[in-house]
Amino acid sequence: MTGAVSAQKPYEPFYMDPVYDVTDNFGAFDADGNPMGDGVLDNPGDIIFRKRTRTGQKDSYNLSLGFSATWSRPLDKKLQDQCKEAAQTNIDLQKQLTANKRLDFEIARLKNCGQLMKDGIMFHPKSPYYKICADVVVRDKNYITPHRHTIPSPSTSSKRVSTNAADLGGPLQTK
Which are the contacts of 51, defined by CB distance < 8 A and separation ≥ 6? Predict the structure, then answer.
């Protein structure tokens, strides 16, 4: 539903229109010597009186009621079906590309975390980055098996031990 109002403000039903003096009685003479008009107004710009003139101004009101509906049907449904199929194919392609990139990311994360664990490098469990590799498992490589190393001691029978400082060599010289 629509409506419209048109009005002029201030409302003036009439105005006073000036009536000008258009007399031309003087300025020339006829053949008998009588005064007559010469084509030039005798009193230009003089207002003789004012007359009441209607303005024609009025208010206008409008109220419109309406209803509109549109129904359309494609003449060739084949094109519409092809368009929908192409859109779905594009959506499926984008989903597959996203899945491929996610798989590439996860494999790279698995590979890097696994290699670092093999090398004995990892984040501290209290680090906010610890969870990056927390779900990576390297079989039989996540820990170092307990073991012992033996350090051979020098035998005293094969070498002579000296208590004399002169046996160690001369003083160091610098240049």
Answer: 16, 17, 19
